[in-house]
User: What shape does this take?
Amino acid sequence: AICTSSLVWGDKWLRELFADAKVTGIINTEISPEFAAKLGAAYGAFIGSSKSILMSRDAYDGSRMINRATISGLMSAGVNVVDLSELPIPVMRHQLRSGSYSGGIHTRKSFSDNKSVELIFIDADGKDIPVSKAKSIERLFQGEAFKRTSHDAIGEVEFSVRVTESYKRNFFNNLDIAAIEKKKYKVVLDYSNGSTSNIFPSLLGNLDCEVVSLNAYKDQRKLLSFRNNYGSAKDNLSNIVKSVQADLGFLIDPSGERLLIFGESGRYVDTSKMMLLITSLFLKQNPGIEKIAVPVTATSRIEVIAKRFGVKEVIRTKNDHSSMMEAVVQKGAQFVAGTKGGYIFPEFLFACDAMFGMAKIMELLAKEEKSFSELLREQALLSLKKIAVPCDWDKKGTVMRKVMEFSEGQKRELVDGVKIYSDNGEWVLLIPDRREAFFNIFVESHNEKRTDEMLEIYEKRIKEWAE
Assistant: This one.
C-alpha cells in the first residue's frame, strides 16, 4: 500500500478544505510545501492552462515558502504566474480589477494562530472566490483529478515591478488632497512590520503631513508575535502620540486591511465609537447616500445616525470581510464600516484598505471645525459587550436548535447566528464560532449593569443547552 496523504492531518482536509475563500492550517504540519504544490495544481486545473494569475504574500518567511510551492503547482498545470512578491492584499485586489488575470492567491500568517498560515483565493474581479468555486477546487484537490501539463506547456513566472502605479493614481484621485495638506497633520503611524511600509510612506509624502513611523521594517520575530504583543503595541503607540504631541495615531495591521486610531491625547478609540464617528462624518459630508452596511454585531446607534442623514437602508451583514465586500458588490452599499477597524469606501475599492482608510479619515476630520476629541464626545454609545462560552463542536448544532426554539415568536434576525431584540431596544446575538469550540454572545443595552446581567443569563442558558 502507498500512503499519499497524512494519516494524522488528512481527515481535517476530508471534512473541509476551504472556510469561505481561505485555506488555513499549521505551517509544515497541515500546510506543507507538498500540500501547497498539490493545492496549486488543483487550482491551476480549475483555472485552465495558459491562463494568468497573480500571487502575493506578506513578509513572513513561511508565507514565502508556501507561496513558491503553490507557484510550482500552478506552473505544473500550465498556468502563468505574475509574482507580486511582498504586497498588501488590498493592492492585489486593486490590480485584479484591471481584468487581465483569471484570479489570484495571497498567502499570509494567520492572526488567530501564530503557527498557521492562510491562503486567500481571489476571483478575477478582485473579490474573494464564491463558495461554488471553492467547492470545485476542493473536489479537484480531494480526488486528485487534475491534469499535469506536457513538458512544452509548463507555465511561466514573471515578476511585476510597476504594480503599484495604478493603485497610487486611484488613491489620490479619490481624496481631497488640498483639505489634508491644509490641516498640516502630525501623526504617529505603526506599520506592525507589515508590507504597507513598502508603499505607504511615498503616498503620505504627497499629503504634506509629518509622520513618526514605527515598525516600518521587516522583522520575523515581531511579525510572529504580533497577536501576543498587540496590547503592548497599543500602549507604546499611545505613549508616543502623547509625548510628540501628535494630532492622531494610527496602527495598521500586518495585512493592511484594518486600522486602529488614537486621539491627540494618546487615548485609543474603541472601534465601535470610531465606527459611529466615521459613519457620521461620511454621511454628513456626502449628502444623498441611500444605502450603507455594517455587521450584525455593530451597535444599533448606527440606525439612529443613518436616519438623521436620510439613509434609506442599513444593510446588516455577517461579521466578516467577505460579507462586507458582498454588501458593496451585490447590494449596492455606498459605505461599509466594520467592527474590527475595517472601512470600505466603494468609490476607491470594494474591500477594506487601511492605507486609503487612514487617508480618508484624515480628510473627513480635516473638513470639520471641531477637534477630534470634541467630535468623539458627540458620539453617544450604548453598552455593548461580548463573551465567548466554551461549547464542544458536536454540541453546537444542538445549541443552535435550542436557540431557535427559544426565540420562536420573538423579534429576531438570522443574518449570522440568532439576534433577539427586546421591546426596549436591547438585543442579544448568539453565534457559534466557526474556528474554535466556543459560542459567542454579544449584548447591547442602555447601561453596563444590564449588559452584564444579560450576558450572565445567556451564558448560563448556552451551558444548559449544551449539556
